[in-house]
Design a protein that fits this description.
This protein is α/β, with parallel strands linked by helices and 342 residues long. It contains 16 helices and eight strands. The chain has a single domain, classed as Alpha-Beta Barrel (TIM Barrel), CATH 3.20.20.140. Strand 4, helix 8 and strand 5 form a beta-alpha-beta unit. The mean pLDDT is 95.
Length: 342
């Protein structure tokens, strides 16, 4: 694993389609003659900024024009992937990043999910070489499209040699129920465990603590995206703690999705995770929406959440330990590199 001496950041939870450049989306829309209901680029950019009172549904509504603009356009997918890596280097200072996206959302008349993955990996790999950022990809299954689960798993296995490191479940969990875990999803994640495909699951952001329990114990999640509401059920929290599962904490988005009340930042769930010795890391989730890449996110954590430099350093150590890396040598190299920087 080649790592740049100039970079030391690590991020485990960032959505590719939530880390695009609004300018690029605007350009691609014009090139493809897609009519956007905005009179200017500035007005278009404001579409991505959620307003209080916050909710996950309102947060996700900012993506309403991302998918239509990019879907089925190979050149746009390659371009956006390359720009993502460039921003990871210069705006986040990352030496290692695990990005994620749902390939089935970006298909078109001449592009199936596999072609979408190929184009995205092409862009990521080309830019990763240029900018010296180790980039990996996680494939998401959308909650409202469980029928894609098996194909996502098979594609993750097929493209593992090319940088795909795991699978995820994403999407609006505001109305979560146990029935959301269809037999197909359960089978997919059971097989993923058998095959050695890494697993992370969005849970406990807008959904209840029970969603975290199901993610860990029925979907065999090694990491949980967000997971804040697990604290609402002490019994489940204790059970989950004992597994050593890792929580991918995204502070800014947790406020903007309404997962955490905006006037209680000093009591953010991350403080409880820290005091209880729970494994957690810090990520941006969707810089396009929050307006913060990782450098700014960490500054926000210090100034607004009151996290100490020790806590932030611990989050980096945790991130390396929880990263979907199978080589012990690579993990040790990354750990020494990340913690060697002040």
């Amino acid at each position: 694993m080649y790592l740049s001496s100039e970079l030391s950041g690590i991020e485990l939870h960032v959505h590719l389609d939530g880390a695009l450049r609004a300018d690029t989306l605007w350009d691609v829309a014009k090139l493809r003659q897609i009519k956007l209901p905005y009179s200017s680029l500035e007005e278009f950019k404001r579409n991505f900024s959620p307003q209080n009172p916050y909710s996950l549904t309102k947060f996700l509504s900012g993506f309403q024009w991302v998918i239509p603009v990019l879907a089925g356009d190979k050149e746009a997918l390659v371009r956006s992937a390359m720009e993502f890596v460039e921003d990871c280097r210069y705006r986040s200072g990352l030496c290692y990043v695990e990005a994620r996206f749902a390939p089935h959302l970006l298909t078109g008349s001449s592009m199936d999910a596999e072609a979408v993955i190929q184009a995205t990996l092409d862009g990521l790999q080309r830019a990763s070489t240029k900018h010296v950022v180790q980039t990996r990809l996680i494939l998401c299954i959308m909650r409202d499209r469980p029928e894609t689960a098996d194909e996502v798993l098979q594609l993750a296995r097929k493209y593992e040699p090319h940088g795909v490191v795991g699978i995820d479940i994403a999407g609006d969990e505001s109305n979560w129920t146990p029935e959301d875990l269809t037999p197909g999803l359960l089978k997919t994640f059971e097989l993923a465990k058998v095959y050695g495909v890494h697993r992370t699951v969005h849970a406990g952001e807008a959904g209840p603590a029970e969603a975290v329990h199901e993610a860990v114990f029925r979907l065999h999640a090694e990491r949980v995206g967000h997971g804040y509401r697990v604290l609402e059920n002490p019994t489940i929290y204790e059970q989950v703690q004992k597994t050593g599962v890792h929580f991918e904490v995204c502070p800014s988005s947790s406020i903007m999705t309404g997962a955490v009340q905006h006037n209680t930042t000093k009591k953010h769930p991350v403080h409880r995770f820290i005091s209880d010795g729970v494994s957690f890391s810090l990520s941006t989730d969707d810089p396009l929406i929050t307006g913060r890449w990782l450098k700014d996110e960490l500054a926000y954590c210090e100034t607004e959440l009151g996290l100490s430099t020790t806590a932030i350093r611990q989050s980096k150590w945790n991130a390396v330990k929880a990263a979907f890396i199978d080589s012990a040598e690579d993990r040790e190299q990354l750990l020494n590199h990340v913690l060697g920087k002040k």
